[in-house]
Amino acid sequence: MNSHRFQIIASSLVLFAVVAACSLSPSASTTASTAAPAVATSQPVSASSAGDCSNTYFPVSVGTNWAYSSTGSTLGAYTYTWTVTDLGNAGFTTSDQYSTGVNASIKWNCQNGNLAALDAGSTSLSVTNSSSTFKMTSNSITADGFNIPNNFNNGNTWSEKVTVDGTVQSGTNSANSQIVSNVNCSAAGTESVTVPAGTFDAVKATCNQTVQVSFLMQGTPQPAGAPDMVSITDWYAKGVGLVKSVRASSLSNTETIVLTQYKIQ
Questions:
Q1: What's the whole-model pTM score?
Q2: Which runs of consecutive H residues, i.e. helices, occur in 56-155?
Q3: Which CATH number fits domain 9-263: 3.40.50.970, 2.40.360.20, 3.30.420.40, 3.40.630.30?
Q4: pLDDT tens-digit series, residues 173-200
């Protein structure tokens, strides 16, 4: 989601796959498809009590959902939805479904209102360019830090590191891979933002993300190419959630994501 959007591990998996494919064989156009969802559970709590997951700018209750559309991505235009399916005292689960064919169940961790997308389980997806098809399977995803803070007071800073271990396959060739994403963010005041879902007074976050794709040689990461340097701007509205995100990549295009509709339970 990104982003840092989400950001959100499912959308990050799409980016990771594109970067991995470009590292193996650069191409002007790519499309992604196919994923196997994982399952995550937590101890249930009432929908009105979010516990450590209570966040003014990212309301969490079972049944809450958001719908987004994206333009400018390397993948072309696509849409996706997030739906909160499970809520516990210190975590929750979202079902993330993308029109590209990627579907995942994402487990989130909460601590004093700080939210981190932790695990998408084992997920497979394929990326096809003009000459080859690449398949990436993530075997494990770990995260340190958080990507949605408990407050957006001007000057507040936060960070997150996500590590994805898996395999990349093209034809009969395969290699163990590791993708490391480091994101550093800061709150940057408030702005009025208009998207298809409406006009919102939103807090603004600016982030710098570095994504490094490596192949594992006897367990040691060997960079597959230059890291992707991504400049991210996110806008969150109180009582609504993420309403807009812009991601400018050094290796591909500038992607704009906007909220099209939402339902807060």
A1: 0.77
A2: none
A3: 2.40.360.20
A4: 777 888 888 999 999 999 999 999 999 9
